[in-house]
Design goal:
The structure holds two protein chains of two kinds. Chain A folds into two domains: 2-95; 97-134. Helix content of chain A is 90%, strand content 0%. Chain A contains four helices and no strands. Chain A is elongated and about 70 Å long. Chain B has a domain at 2-78. Chain B is mostly helical. In chain B, helix 1 (2-31) runs antiparallel to helix 2 (35-61) and helix 2 runs antiparallel to helix 3. The chains are: A mainly alpha, B mainly alpha.
Chain lengths: 134, 130
């Protein structure tokens, strides 16, 4: 009696996890930036690990838990290596300052440009609104 | 018999909470727009979702070697997930050239309908100081 209930519970959560894996794979295809894709792939890896752990209880095979542990380590290594590689490629391409210099550049220059543009746009919009009101 | 059902109900509750956290994290990653906001949603599934699902599995398996390995996976995830999140956020902050466009502080000054200009807050501040 309880075995059937356990089977239903494990199968149901496996089916939900499969749907979630498909949804996050779609996000990893769609994601506009490289970091969006890495986030989606990391989340897909988490859900695959959960599915393998549920399968190890469902099939009563203990060695699948070892597979799960190794999968977690390789997934973490993949994320770290991908981040390092893409950071290096970007900095080499743009010939920017490494590390926090690049972040400060992104924040200050773009921020000032954005603020100037916002002020300009707001003035334009206010003038247009006044004309519309009259 | 009753004890087995109690264990089943506890494991089912843990499973339900974990699966709900994972659904929320996938929903957040598909819903939010900036990568830094998406990371915030994804970290929830990495920590709380995996904690509750593996806690349910450990309740089902009982006190055994594979249960210890499941606990090891939780421990590894709780160490590795913040590190990978830090790496991804540094990649995003370094390669995103529109990082200054994420105007968090100016949103209150602009307002929801965009009536007031962002300078309004600064003018009020100057007025108060005078």
């Amino acid at each position: 009696m309880t075995e059937q209930a356990y089977d239903i519970l494990l199968l149901g959560s496996l089916i939900i996890l499969a749907v979630l894996i498909i949804a996050s794979m779609i996000r990893s295809f769609l994601g506009p930036g490289i970091s969006d894709r890495i986030i989606a792939i990391n989340m897909t890896g988490t859900m695959v690990i959960t599915a393998i752990a549920i399968l190890s209880v469902f099939l009563e095979e203990d060695y699948l838990v070892d597979v799960c542990l190794i999968y977690a380590m390789i997934s973490f290594l993949g994320v770290v290596v991908l981040c390092k590689v893409y950071t290096g490629v970007y900095l080499q391409k743009k010939k920017l300052k490494p590390d926090f210099g690049a972040i400060a550049d992104n924040l200050t220059h773009q921020g000032e440009e954005c603020r100037e543009r916002d002020v300009r746009d707001n003035k334009g919009r206010h003038a247009a609104g006044e004309e519309d009101g009259k | 018999m009753i004890l087995e059902w109690v264990r089943f109900i506890l494991a089912g509750g843990c499973f339900a909470v974990g699966i709900v956290f994972m659904i929320l994290s996938v929903f957040g990653v598909n819903r939010l727009h900036h990568a830094l906001n998406r990371m915030h949603a994804a970290a929830m599934g990495d920590t709380l979702g995996i904690l509750f699902v593996f806690l349910g599995l450990m309740l089902i398996r009982g006190f055994s070697m594979s249960s210890l390995k499941l606990f090891l996976v939780i421990l590894f995830f709780w160490v590795a997930s913040p590190v990978s999140g830090h790496m991804i956020s540094r990649l995003e902050a370094m390669t995103d050239e529109d990082l200054g466009e994420m105007a968090v502080l100016e949103f209150d000054a602009i307002g929801a309908d965009g009536e007031e200009s962002p300078i309004a807050g600064e003018e009020e501040l100057e007025h108060e100081s005078v």
